[in-house]
Amino acid sequence: MIKSVQIKCTVQDGAVLPVYKTTGAAGADVCAFVKSPVEIAPGESALVSTGLYFEIPEGYEIQVRPRSGLAAKNGVTVLNTPGTIDSDYRGELKIILINLGKESFVVNGCDRIAQIVVAPVTHGAFVKTDLLGETARGTGGFGSTGVGANA
Length: 151
Hints:
By secondary structure, the protein is mainly β. 5% of the residues lie in helices and 36% in strands. Strands 1-4-8-6 form a 4-stranded antiparallel sheet. The protein has a 4-stranded antiparallel sheet with strand order 2-10-5-7, with no helix packed on it. The longest helix has 7 residues, at 68-74. The model has no long low-confidence stretch (mean pLDDT 91).
């Protein structure tokens, strides 16, 4: 199902609309909108402009996710993955990139830096209780089901 999302670009020319690169793509690529190159040193992060502002329909969110190619080839990923853009936010979409690689990474204008996914939101009804139902797993977490293929 296609859901319309209104996009306003910055007054300045050069912001690029998100694009699905294939018909089966879940995420649309988002490009940097920077006046000059942004260098991200190893271990450092940067807030990168896109020049895009969204009007997301109520009941939906936009999730910001890394591009696998940047992560695999350069060690560059989105810091707060997945980032959530709420339907009532009207500010510019900015991407927090972190360089986990061994060499500096340079972001230029129009570089594809992340992808966005439009997704429905379900609100939970949080109810206080003094007792939770039991499961086989119980309170086990963080590796409690094992690590590795034979765990």
